[in-house]
Amino acid sequence: MGLSIDNSGDGECSHPHTHKVFLLSNYILLGAASSCIFLTLSLRLFPSLIGFLLILLQIITIAGAVSGCAAASRTATSAGKFYGAHMVATVLTAIFQGSVSVLIFTRPSDFLGHLKSYVRVDDGVMILKLAGGLCILIFCLEWVVLTLAFFLNYYAYVERRGINGNSSYGMRSGKVQDDEDLKTWPWPFQV
Prior knowledge:
mainly alpha
């Protein structure tokens, strides 16, 4: 798996529920971001600069969700750099989605004026509030995806250490180190 690792030969995930929730969150992100694009286009078919930037933000969100879904098929060797890039992109899009939703809900008529919409103001404000609600949903889902990606990467790290010759001692006993390692430490630290 992408942000986790497929260490077994049969291709099974060690944490299937976390992986399924991760994929479901990414699929919901895809749907919400594409819906926000269509709501923005319903305000003006050829968007203004602000509308174009809003659509670009949604496209970046879609790209992050697609890359998160595609991460499910990656192996441990390619997950390291991809994981970092995915986390940075997700954090940035989440911050911008939150900012856009605050702008939409605090000043909808001004935001609508910058979009240069050709629909009635009442209808435009309603469409903007729907888009703002989707931006809030996207904001929350981005943080859920970040948390799940962290857990999947952590599980993969723990599994990788167990398979690479550490005999999974830390996984069975819960101890951080072997008792033999503690004997070489200075006296105050030997417990």
